[in-house]
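User: Can you predict the 3D structure for this chain?
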Amino acid sequence: MKIGIIGGGNVGSSLAKLLTNAGHDVLVGSRNGINSAQDAALHGDAVVLALHYHAVADALPPLADELDGKVVVDATNPLNDDWSPLLLGQENSAAEEIARLVPNAHVVKAFNTIFADVMSKEKMDRAGQKITAFVASDEDVALSTVAKLADDMGFASVTISKLSAARYLEAMAHLNIELAIGQDGGTNAALIYHRAS
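Assistant: Here is the predicted structure, written as structure tokens:
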């Protein structure tokens, strides 16, 4: 599958490596890279947003035409500059804001609860269990597409059939960041969602 990634930072480059290793055709676009955000948007059948949330409002409107009809994966978290939560209201989320910016795209929330530091083959095996990749969307085809990408990369996908669940996933990421940075726990940590059979 052709995947465009907008954002060449730690998350974008780590996802690009995992997706490429899984056999996907990946192009990363960023402000300072060889390829632009528009290049990434044009390239991908699915496009991952791996940039700072505060950059989204400026970055996405010019790409609305390129993203029409495509799966747009929101891997962002709403954060202030000091890594504290940027609160968007209890009936809102970054993913829902993004869906309003690109109304003709199929928006999926995914990968925001996973630290870039553990997005590698060596760190995915957590005592015999895979890192959970939560995937949320209102649209079934987009949901299953991104869940398959997550599984291809070596994560264990858990799907949620509503984009509004991004509110919970972003809160989970805020907790993860507080444990890692606020409480000095470090970023070699991952969430495992285990369902008993």
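The mean pLDDT is 94. The radius of gyration is 15 Å.
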